[in-house]
Fold each of these.
Amino acid sequence: MTSTTLDKTTIGFGLSAAVMSILNTLLVIFKELTPPFKAGMASAMGHHWTTHGVAVIVLFIVLGFILSGAVKPESWSGSRLGQTIAGSVILSAAALAAFYLLH
Amino acid sequence: MSLFGIQVSVMVHVLFGVLGILLAVALLVYILNLNEKNIPRIRSLSLYTAVSICLSYVIGGWWYVVYYASERDIIRAGPWKWAHTFFMEYKEHLFFALLFLSILLPIIAYRNDLMVPENRRLLLIVTLLVVVIGLAMDGSGALISRGVVVGYMGR
């Protein structure tokens, strides 16, 4: 049975954390495999990691607000959101580790 | 900045990181022993955890961007080059997931009725992830520091 007790901001930012964990890993893989893109990130803000950080944090906040306004609270229980976040974070952490082990 | 100042800034980064982990562990204990009286403390701890992790990120990030390059070169020239090529690369990027999760903690704690088991479970899962990733960050940091020492010893 789905609980309707989570508020929309929690669901929005929870889903944003899940999505951004995956996007963060994809951005790492893309920039490491595309040297000109990494160089562009470095020239944008002085260091590729600074640009990376600003991009993912701004996206996390913007996506959090967008999803907060778009989600249907009755579709998300605490358990379902927790499992989505945990699955996404574990998958992205494992993919990041695998990438740097093989890279 | 002086050499002393640079080293202190790294230690302050570690201090806030470890403090964030300790606060998250305390939060975990209170969530596992949830009752009406504990809720204000759970909310405070969730906020303190987020602030501590954010401060660790800002201070560590500044040090990494401004001062890490010379240490990276020492690590890469030494026998423990994987301390940089795996652990630092992993740490500097996985930290963003930790940052998102720690920011999420007070959002969950302040905006929901924690006496509802489903909401409590969500806070428990996110707090557990913060503790586990925080420990991974801490262990990686320790290996990176040893990588510098081993790099110097090999010279």
Note: The mean pLDDT of chain A is 95.
Amino acid sequence: MGLFNLLFSPHRQSAAIAKERLKIVLAHERAGRNAPDFLPKLQNELIEVVGRYVQIRDDMIRVNLGKSGETSLLEINIEIDGAKPKPPPVRTGLAGATPARPG
Amino acid sequence: MAKVVVITSGKGGVGKTTTAAAFAAGLAMRGHKTVVIDFDVGLRNLDLIMGCERRVVFDFINVINGDANLNQALIKDKRNDSLFIFPTSQTRDKNALKREGVERVIEELKQQFDYIICDSPAGIEHGAITALYFADSAIIVTNPEVSSVRDSDRIIGILASRSRRAERNESPVEVNLLLTRYDPARVAKGEMLTVEDVGEILSIPLLGVIPESESVLRASNTGTPVAFDEDSPAGRAYLDAVARFLGEQREMRFVKPERRNLFRALFGRA
């Protein structure tokens, strides 16, 4: 490869970019490859159960399968900070009991 | 002991059928009785690449369903007595490839052949999984390009978890990389992933590098497996890969850009 090409080729080192991108995406995908299929379902059910007591958004519960040395770790993070307690259940049949919705 | 070899990639258009045809031809040239099976139900193409499209009478699905026996469906190659082609069906019912039926046919082929080459369809659906399920060995056909490398990685994972060997806790499917459509001139300019890059990312043994070559299209135009074109770089690269597959040591060729040669430029064939 000539010096001219090295300095002035507009496409120089696109292969290096390809390699970096592949390494990152594959590291991520390989980590998720052995995750059991039940993780998304577990996450949804946790959201449902915790949601009975506090108002949470879906992204406030994260379920991960990790490793610490030889031990497999099921890591569940529930971000509760700032979550509002769930309002008491709405009694049906009483006009005006439902909270007013904006708009 | 017969060996079942799947030619797979995940991604389409990377050269699986070209490789299946060339590899089967190369094994037959080395005297091994070889059959190459098309697993791409509904999109039959191996027959064209092998140049036997007008000789197809019965197919894989006919044999699975018991409508024909194996020897009625197998097509003997006219150029090499050790080479047989097993065409697939053009049916649109992809699920016609039932695992029990495929298993019975493969067991029967094992009685007659040294090598059973399974040409997988693209993707990770039923056909591709069936093609790799019975494999003892896998050749991962990869282009030096991001989407092909990623899909190869996915297929390697599937071989490790969903093949029959994995399900039975037997020794794992032996997996090898075949890098195709390699352009050493572009690699030298930093425009294409190097063979070392791809090897490092996928971390499986390298069986061979097939250079981008005009001879591949010429071979498919004429229905000749490119390994029969022993003068072409791609043909020679495939024969090297076959030799390595059989346990021989061969130096990697066609990985450095060719010197410009005036004579070749004027008169030569690629």
Note: The two ends of chain A are 66 Å apart (CA to CA).
